[in-house]
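Data card: per-record layout.
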Amino acid sequence: MFWKYSYFGLSLFLPYYSVLPLVSCMPNNRQAKGLDFGPRFLWRMLILAGFALFNGLFFPGEVLMMSALVGVVLFVVRKFNDTALLITAVILLLQPIEWGRYIYYLFNYEYLVPASGQGTYWKLLKEAQLGTSFLDQVKVNTLYGHKISLMWAYGVGRLVQTGGLFVFGYWLGKKQLFVDSEQSIGFWKRALAVGATVFVPFFLLERNFAILTDAKIHAQTLLKVVDMYGNLALIAVLVASFILLYKTKFFRKIAGGLRYYGRMSLTVYVLQSMIGGFVFFGYGLGIGPSTLHTKSLVIGIVLFAGLFYFCKWWINRYGQGPLEKLWHKLTWIELPSKKE
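The structure for this 340-residue chain is written out next.
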């Protein structure tokens, strides 16, 4: 299954989590000035969906479309107070769909979660990846890639969790917990401690879930909840660790160069799809089927290093990535007003 190759797992991580703050925190800047960024934000998400359609030509499992669609939740909650924002985030992060299905099962023991029908689409994508026609790859990716990506995200609980993370990120921004302050440091220390404490039992519970129960409905609902809770705890550990480490001069000196990569996150995301697709899929070098995970990871590291130095050169020369600049210009384009 080529969409799971280590190259994409490694190389898409940084740009994906660099794009998310752009989605979740930008409204704060406008609202701080007393302006409603809502309509402009919806336009910005529509532009992001356009980038997703282009990126999807090369890689079928991309997340920009999901970010553009789920990002609309921020338009809905943009005028919520801090308490309402936090409550909304918690509800979404609790995996309400999975819990709702399990509660329904308690009143109807015949209930099972309907099959998603994803198998046919995965088969079509795999056939295109093994084939040698780029046009066939584009066709299948466009027709089925975004659909299967959203179906998968919904099926595993990631679609709703992403909405919760967006709202929670918006709340963090409003509470000024990304700035360098004693309050911020204390919050991220607590987040690290809680995340590390919670992750271990959920990880062990997931690994041993089959021993506790073999009921299909439990695997379709409760196991997904356990998996998503564990992932959420791990995210807290990773983010809190990075933020706290970045406050030290030593780590900031080592990791500071990642800012070049982050400032071109959208451009790099698309470039990775183009390069990775050519390297692994049949229409290009086609080395995917014969490349094991370790070699694939090495290729990913090499390509990551090459893109890093490209980003550094580009930022020092032009100051902003090409797609980032285009996104900015399109965001603030003034549409012609109707004449009276």
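Known properties of this structure: The CA atoms of residues 12 and 57 lie 16 Å apart. Residues 2-180+247-331 form one domain.

See the next section for split statistics.
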